[in-house]
Amino acid sequence: MKTKDRIIFAALELFNEQGERTVTTNHIAAHIQISPGNLYYHFRNKQEIVRAIFELYSSELLERFAPPHGQKESLSLLKHYLDSIFTLMWKYRFFYANLPDILQRDEVLHGSYIRVQEKLRRNLVSIISSFIEMELLEVPESEMQSFVTTLHMITASWLNYRSTMSLKAQVTEEVIHQGMLHVIAAVKPRATPAGAEQLQLLEDGVRAMHA
């Protein structure tokens, strides 16, 4: 692996474990046993590393939440999107947990974030429309944008909400699964009988992970 990539993945690991605020470039360099000068050859400061991590996150986000193409079994498709929520929130949990603070410190990153989220919203509308065509959901066109906003708010804000509710809150896999259950709960009122049945299967699967 190239040194630049090692720096990015080491930073991601440390940010998730210790919080982005507490980790310095010296910590990152020491973690992969390179000199600070070697790190600065690739990144001028920690903020550039955060931006590089965000680029990875953005690519994975838009890839995982791309509208479905062709015929796919509906339950596996629902599970794919639900699994993607967990994967992204766990892999980039430092970002989700401290999103407002991170974005307020970097106007460039904030601009990138807004552009990516706008693309995500368009994808989510297409995804929901696909589930409507599969007769799994019933969402009137007039309510589509507010429904997508609700789902978006839950996933983007869940970890930040948990951290504000308790100063000692830790981001665990169980906490992220709780967020997934809230997403399912928000979707259930819009489900058809067939959709409700499949959502219940997914909900039971999530709950069973911590039974």
TrEMBL record:
Keywords: DNA-binding. Residues 1-61 form the HTH tetR-type domain. It comes from the Bacteria. InterPro entries: Homeodomain-like_sf, HTH-type_Tx_Regulator, HTH_TetR, TetR. The keyword DNA-binding applies. Pfam families: TetR, TetR_N. The keyword Iron does not apply. Residues 24-43 bind DNA. This is TetR/AcrR family transcriptional regulator. The lineage of its organism: Bacteria, Pseudomonadati, Pseudomonadota, Gammaproteobacteria, Vibrionales.
